[in-house]
């Protein structure tokens, strides 16, 4: 199992720790570093900044939001950074949810998310393969565009720039069973949001058709500390926000995932509390047991024992949200 460093997205402003953490991860032998975006900082610019200050570590987006860019624009970002970094780019994509897509990007959330995702990946692949002009008779991403307000003179085009790699890896952040199953068919890897190494049966059917070499790269917050309850607080804060606030009461993919993992009653309670404005209570309502099973928190000996569970198939890469070099170093030593 390879290790990756997940930096997420910025809060109020850029973190001065991100580049030093990425450099330390590279020194420790981590395979990859990942950035994200929500409705603030973008995923590609910080990754380019890190690329210029590292030499070996792979560079991933976990995830770049599809609604933020047309698929050809995303392919342009990916092939550009792949060239500048000498072939280190890993393109992780995610559909996001209706509140972000419609509220931030001002676009309709696709009524057929699987079709929209499939078309998006198809276009990105065409750009990267550069076998001919990009064309797609698509419902969501038609190229050339031929809608009712089109001029009618759109022309299929082929990238001027020759991509560094035609097979640049494309990974998808997927949560629903059908979406995960499609990911196994059309992508090079999957980026699970929550992964429990003790509940792999939740994903088993969806991954049944995954090809050899398919990447499964879950993200987990990690912290070496003596007080487990205190160490889990950031995990619970993240879960409270995602399950309670990242979605509508009637349509929240994160809450639905927690429910499928055996915590349906708790997920709905967190939603209710958060939507009622009782955010601190929502965080405290996150069960310690759930926060614990999707993270690596505690003394070194405890993390060493639990890390063995994460090493089991189908996990190929563990993307670590670790705020301090000490935790990064301990994980590198334990995974050696």
From TrEMBL:
The keyword Oxidoreductase applies. It comes from the Bacteria. Residues 17-312 form the Luciferase-like domain. CDD domains: Tetrahydromethanopterin_reductase. Coiled coil: none annotated. GO terms for molecular function: oxidoreductase activity, acting on paired donors, with incorporation or reduction of molecular oxygen. Gene3D superfamilies: Luciferase-like domain. Signal peptide: none annotated. InterPro entries: F420-G6PD/mer, F420_OxRdatse_Rv3520c_pred, Luciferase-like_dom, Luciferase-like_sf. The keyword Oxidoreductase applies. Keywords: Oxidoreductase. This is LLM class F420-dependent oxidoreductase. It comes from Streptomyces capitiformicae. The lineage of its organism: Bacteria, Bacillati, Actinomycetota, Actinomycetes, Kitasatosporales.
